[in-house]
Q: What sequence folds into this?
């Protein structure tokens, strides 16, 4: 990893009614292999976790000063350590009305990457554990819970500075204390949550419309490739870029040129952004229809509908043909045993 700077500070309150206290580091870490492993683990877990919102910094700098401090840091008017100190004091202030107890570390990681610089902030807690020492005596230890954190943020610094995007700030708020999560969002200055589910649904509708212009084989390949590409981008924490997807589709479906899909999107749905963040659930459900209740669970490829599977909405029934051999064998066995 190309880590430029990494520093950690502690914030804690152990008793109700007490004020939140800070323990600020006097210097950033000297980069070494263990720190790179820590940063990599945090980054990987951030990508894997759900609960993400996408937006930008608030323009209300009086209430949300972090972007101003970050700009000074990027311009070297403020050191990375000083920036992180001011950020921690802002978080402490944001927690004034919180009632929860807390003992956690905020880890600030600045990376310089080929695709652009990033700043990530993770709130990580210690976990306790037992171990056997060299004399086989039982001891207790503490370790950073790098997989269990529930609050984090990632800023695409170049996109923010160049105003190339309105979703350069990713906020992760998984389940946890609501008052702590709200304070974290306030301290990060997050605003303008994007409805990525709706954006993905509109995009998939365009894919459907585009597929009707193709023969059956090319249409099936196109839909499958769209799903694979979008899920790969989502897993990597990256956006879907229409131009790149169009080129990728042309490599899979040899019957049309690289710009065909991108041109179709631009012509028929110019309001669709040239790049967007995919909603994984919407993408998966595009090629599979699934559902369950207390006694029934079912999942099948969406292109089976109208062929092997027919749905009658008036009777609310499914008719299934060409059952999977294993399922058919289980059904026959069950019928014989129940007689």
A:
């Amino acid at each position: 990893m190309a880590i430029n700077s990494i520093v950690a500070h502690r914030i804690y309150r152990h008793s109700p009614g007490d004020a939140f206290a800070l323990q600020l580091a006097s210097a950033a870490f000297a980069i070494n292999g263990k720190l790179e492993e820590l940063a990599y683990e945090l980054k990987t877990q951030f990508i894997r976790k759900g609960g993400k919102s996408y937006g930008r910094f608030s323009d209300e700098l009086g209430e949300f000063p972090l972007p101003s401090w970050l700009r000074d840091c990027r311009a070297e008017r403020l050191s990375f350590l000083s920036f992180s100190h001011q950020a921690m004091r802002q978080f402490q202030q944001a927690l004034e009305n919180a009632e929860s107890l807390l003992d956690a570390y905020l880890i600030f990681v600045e990376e310089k990457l080929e695709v652009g610089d990033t700043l990530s902030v993770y709130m990580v807690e210690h976990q306790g554990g037992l171990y056997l020492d060299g004399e086989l005596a039982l001891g207790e230890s503490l370790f950073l819970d790098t997989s269990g954190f529930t609050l984090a943020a990632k800023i695409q610094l170049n996109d923010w500075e160049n105003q190339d995007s309105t979703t350069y700030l990713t906020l992760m708020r998984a389940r946890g204390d609501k008052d702590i999560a709200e304070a974290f969002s306030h301290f990060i200055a997050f605003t303008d949550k994007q409805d990525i589910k709706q954006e993905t649904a509109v995009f998939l509708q365009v894919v459907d419309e585009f597929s009707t212009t193709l023969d059956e084989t090319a249409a099936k390949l196109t839909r499958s490739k769209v799903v694979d590409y979008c899920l790969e981008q989502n897993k990597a924490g990256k956006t879907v870029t229409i131009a790149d997807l169009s080129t990728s589709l042309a490599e899979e479906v040899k019957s049309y040129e690289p710009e065909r899909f991108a041109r179709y999107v631009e012509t028929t749905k110019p309001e669709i952004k040239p790049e967007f963040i995919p909603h994984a659930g919407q993408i998966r459900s595009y090629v599979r229809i699934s559902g369950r209740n207390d006694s029934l669970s079912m999942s099948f490829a969406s292109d089976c509908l109208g062929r092997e599977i027919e749905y009658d909405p008036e009777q609310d029934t499914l008719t299934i043909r060409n059952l999977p051999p294993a399922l058919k064998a289980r059904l026959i066995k069950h019928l014989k045993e129940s007689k």
